[in-house]
Amino acid sequence: MKVVMIGTGYVGLVTGACFADFGHEVTCIDKDTGKIDQLRNGKIPFFEPGLDKLVATNVRWSRLSFDTDLKQAVGEADAVFLAVGTPTRASDGEADLNYVEQAAKEVALAMDGFTVIVNKSTVPVGTGDKVEQLVNEARPDGDFAIVSNPEFLREGSAIWDFKHPDRIMVGTSDERAIEVMREIYRPLYLNETPILFADRRTAELTKYAANAFLATKITFINEMADLCEATGADIQQVARGIGLDGRIGTKFLHAGPGFGGSCFPKDTLALTRIAERFGSSVEIVEAVVRVNELRKMRMVEKIVDACGGDVKGKRLAILGLTFKQNTDDMRDSASLTIIPALQKAGAKISAYDPEGMEEAAKLLHDLEYAETAYEAIKRADALVIMTEWDQFRALDLRRVKNALNAPIVVDLRNIYRPEEMAKMGFRYVSIGRPTIGY
Q1: Least buried of 156, 203, 246, 331, by fewest C-beta within 10 Å?
Q2: Do both 177 and 239 map to the same domain?
Q3: What pLDDT sits at residue 190?
Q4: DSSP code of 436?
Q5: Residue 210 lies in a domain
Q6: Of 133, 127, 169, nearest in space to 152 by CA
Q7: CB neighbour class for 425 (10 Å; exposed up to 12, middle 13-18, buried from 19)
Q8: Is 173 in the same domain as 263?
Q9: pLDDT (average), residues 278-299
Q10: In this structure, are 48 and 172 located in the same domain?
């Protein structure tokens, strides 16, 4: 089938490349000429493992192309996916739909014959109705169907998630659109992936509900970690003890500095605004948003306490800047709150991240960016592990200890074992586990 992807951001590019890999003819459209030039030259504008090879393969087989002009591609398309940004609106916390609405109008003017217009962007409940209205106004003679098809991709493992999804959610009651969507996702259907068909509003709300529930699990385990620290219990054993219950599950029960990234902070806040607009109550989600913000400052206190209650004039090594491993995404990363707070308290920061330093440099200032983890650690008064990159799990601890001015490690991801750190002579502070050392 002929598919057009409007937007070459994280969702649009991953989805477009994966559809092309299914054998569809995909054109990715973006108004950013610099980004399109990059993609045509084989350069991916963000880091996602395996995406560069996937894009190159499908470009080579002429299944994937890039353009700034949507007119011809949309006119020939069976389906057009809107995968543009829906950032949080600063004025009220609602999702900003300007990009979605503009894209819908442009698609309306370019479509020729029956066209399925698919909202892939995360949008508030009722957005499909609004898009349908806009398309009707722009093209009263248009033959089209509006579909909601939310994405459930995890940054860092998006290609695997796309090709091995737990489910596919399709929101439409139009039979022709259903057949088009079945054909687009046919390779996954043949692998017996559940495809759930519902009305548009149900599909739109499902995306927010899923992210809010996962964010709630993270926030819950973080609060349990605080309780473990107060009582002397071990959060990792608690998490395992509850996670083996099939009704709860083991995923998203890893204590840390709070959730970040492009989805959870934005979507939990947007969900509270949706509920407010419809006169409903989501007090649990509101608490999750509030507690997650407080969590980051709690981590600042933990770091300062580990350094004897004062970091003024001290050099702190920060390993990991992105909100999670295997991405260069800095959006709502805990480091964006923690590092400035430490600097305000008088600390000097040396930092290293395998993929995120270029993006971090746009947002974090007056710190030293190191070329390696060991360079960041050298002559530091304490080491803080902020992000759980695999390479930080296998540091040469003897080398780390020799490089530090003081053997203090604050592990905000619990990637080391306390008993191992004790044998090495570290003061080891982690999340929800007893502090080891002097």
Answers
A1: 246
A2: no
A3: 80
A4: B
A5: no
A6: 169
A7: middle
A8: no
A9: 96
A10: yes
pTM of the model: 0.92
Tokens of 357: 């330093």
| Residue type (1 letter), 217 | K
Tokens of 182: 């079945």
pLDDT value for 326? 94
CATH number at residue 322: 3.40.50.720
Token duo for residue 220: 């819950």
Closest CA to 104 of 76, 81, 72, 124: 81
DSSP E strands in 312-380: the ranges are 315-319, 348-352, 368-369
105 and 253 belong to one structural domain: no
φ, ψ (nearest 5 deg) of residue 223: -70, -35
Structural domain range at position 146:
2-198
List of E strands, 175-290: 195-198
Cα distances (Å, whole numbers) of residue 92 to 118, 263, 269, 284, 293:
26, 17, 10, 19, 17
Confidence check: pLDDT of 188 > 80? yes
Q: Which of 68-77, 83-92, 101-110, 198-207 has the lowest mean pLDDT?
A: 83-92
Within-domain flag for 228 = no
Identity (one letter) of the amino acid at 111? M
Name which of 22, 14, 1, 7 is nearest 123 in CA terms: 7
Give the residue among 222, 228, 19, 4 at the shortest CA–CA distance from 116: 4
Domain C-terminal end among 149, 170, 198: 198
> Is the confidence at residue 337, as pLDDT, over 70?
yes
pLDDT over 70 (residue 438): no
Catalytic residue, chosen from 18, 28, 228, 263, is 263
**Distance in angstroms (rounded) separating the CA atoms of residues 206 and 212:** 10
Buried b (16+ CB within 10 A) or exposed e, 249-269: eeebbbbbbbbbbbbbbbbbb
Q: What is the mean pLDDT of the chain?
A: 95
- Residue 208 located in a structural domain: no
- 97 and 166 within one domain: yes
**DSSP bridge pairs for 25:** 2
Note if 263 is an active site residue: yes
Quote the DSSP letter at residue 43: -
Structural domain count of the chain? 2
CB neighbour class for 222 (10 Å; exposed up to 12, middle 13-18, buried from 19): buried
Same domain for 190 and 292, yes or no, is no
Asked if residue 331 and residue 383 are part of one domain, the reply reads: yes
| Mean pLDDT on 171-182 | 97
Give the single-character DSSP code of 394.
G
pLDDT classification of 437: cutoffs 50, 70, 90? confident
Residues of the chain above pLDDT 90, percent: 94
Can you tell me whether residue 428 is helix, strand or coil?
A: strand
Task: Please determine, for residue 24, whether its predicted confidence score (pLDDT) is greater than 80.
Answer: yes
